[in-house]
UniProtKB/TrEMBL annotation:
Coiled coil: none annotated. It comes from Aquibacillus halophilus. InterPro entries: Glyas_Bleomycin-R_OHBP_Dase, MeMalonyl-CoA_epimerase, MMCE/EMCE_epimerase. GO terms for molecular function: metal ion binding; methylmalonyl-CoA epimerase activity. Pfam families: Glyoxalase_4. GO terms for biological process: L-methylmalonyl-CoA metabolic process. It comes from the Bacteria. Keywords: Metal-binding. This is Glyoxalase.
Amino acid sequence: MNKSLDHIGIAVRDIENSLQFYQTVLEAKLIDRYRSDAIGVESEIAILEINGERIELLAPTNNTTSPIARFIKQKGKGVHHVAYRVENLDMALDELKEQGIRVLEDSLRINKHGRRLIYLNPADTEGTIIEYCDYPNFG
């Protein structure tokens, strides 16, 4: 199955300072900014575009339960995950299962932009957090 880079998620402590850097220095365009209080997300998210490529800035909104807060506490701020767009998430999950790659079942969700996503188990990806996603309603 074809895969392409969809976006890179970056964990930040202060979304305002991070936005200023990305918009001023890297000349990124702010596409959207929103807050998700869903369990397992609990983050403020800013979607930026630089020459057609996307970056998501992720700032925790709950320093106790947010997975982004946990990530920053353990590893510091910086690249949190790499997201790959797949043609069909269900088929990609079947392929992963055949290959013995586990996913984090509780991370399966549809975000505000209609992106279906799930995270692969970092124990099976050499420690990198990888997201698989598709956009079933957008072709």
